[in-house]
Amino acid sequence: MTFQLRREEVLDGDALKSMLDESPARAAQAILIAAREGVVDAQALLGQILLDGQGIEQDQALALRWFGIAARGGHLMARNMLGRCHEQGWGCPADATIAAAHYRQAAETGLDWAMYNYANLLATGRGVIEDQVQALNLYRQAAALGHAKSMNLLGRYLEEGRNCPMDLHAARDWYRRSAEGGDFRGQFSYAAVLADEGNIDGALVWLHAALAGGNLSFLRVASQALSSATDPQIRALATDYAQRCIELEPAPL
Fold first, then answer.
1. pLDDT attached to residue 103
2. What share of the chain is helix, strand, coil (3-state, %, to 5)?
3. Which of 4, 158, 204, 216 would suit a FRET pair with 28, their CA atoms being 20 to 30 Å apart?
């Protein structure tokens, strides 16, 4: 089937994003045309759909190539995704040092996701010398920009007093903001705070939200933590978390 696409539709990056939700195959064709026309947003989107196999056959090596083209055109998220590819080994050998260089470049230009990803490497000493102070500063900058995952980690530093004065009130506020921003780890952190305050109903609301949005690795750890909770209602959720882990387990080959 041949799709007829207006030129202005093909070259409009925002239109391409909305089209992905409605018709992935049609969007993929439009994105490919726009990417070849030199639309930088479309080049970055093409990398993403190739990485995900959304509306197009998955090809991680080709995704890496298009991220590189978009990054050279000044697209910050594409630069960040080059970092992700090199960190995870998507379409190339895994190399945290190369990943860190891409993250750092995008972070220095102001991208919150790159700040978060670079901070994660600094916090764990992967590809760079471990630097908790710099990691904390980057989490703080990204959190100030509204990055929900960074808000949760900033809360963790403040709660533990790690490389900063302990501030439980500020930690609670960042956990709340992370939870409201949709981060499942932030939702779990905020639920823990509410449970400690005796607000079990509030904690259960956020624990259910974290259950709905959490990935497999998070849910496995969270299930174990919930199994030792003092409150029986919270402890009972450990079973739901474990069941969700079973549902998310990859199918055997």
1. 98
2. 75, 0, 25
3. 216
